Amino acid sequence: MLGEVQQLYQIEARQREARAGPQEVLITRQEHSAPIMERIKARLEELQRSRKHLPQSLTGKALSYALNQWNKLGVFLCHGRVQIDNNLIENAIRPSAIGKKNWLFMGDPTTGDRAATFYTLIGNCHRQGINAEAYLTDIFKRLLTKTNQTVHRLTPKAWAAEQATLRQALAQSAVLPM
């Protein structure tokens, strides 16, 4: 059964490497992953019916849980954009999950709101592929001159676009003869 699960993840890895779009991912999952999931479910049902594992044993409870959650486990088979697991999210929130115990008694009640703001900004920097430290250093210098109407220009996405434009202008000016 572990080999079957491993095959599911290999299919997903090939799709990521090929940078397949949602429609292609869905077709591949329907063709290759769905039969594997059917085999896994059949094996789980077979193990449960065999009574080899008592229903209240850890394995018996695991079998019941897996079968009770089966529709949720298979959602990825019906949607090309849905991931097979939530590992990306787990990895993204791990720093705050670890830190929250450490910061439980730090500061006043608004500390959590400020921390959430910074985590959001830093997370968005990572998604935009920009250096969070460079971003924060720059916007803190510029923030004092912004108004409520212009502060939207300081989002990580807008900042990344601005930096790309500046780099392009610099590259063009270096190429142009004087």
What does this structure look like?
The protein has two domains: 2-77, no CATH class; 108-175, no CATH class. The mean pLDDT is 89. With 178 residues, it is mainly α. It starts with a helix and ends with a helix. Helices cover 70% and strands 0% of the residues. The protein has helices spanning 2-17, 22-50, 58-68, 70-73, 87-102, 111-128, 132-142, 156-175.
Which properties best describe this structure?
single chain; 178 residues; mainly alpha
How many alpha or pi helices? 8
CA-based gyration radius: 24 Å
- The residue-averaged pLDDT reads 89
Main sheet: strands, sense, barrel? none
Strand portion: under 5%
Quote the distance from N terminus to C terminus: 69 Å
The secondary structure category is: mainly alpha
Order of helices and strands: HHHHHHHH
Q: How many independent structural domains?
A: 2
Summarize the structure.
By secondary structure, the protein is an all-alpha fold.
Helices, strands, pairings?
Elements: H1 2-17, H2 22-50, H3 58-68, H4 70-73, H5 87-102, H6 111-128, H7 132-142, H8 156-175
Helix pairs in contact: 1-2, 2-3
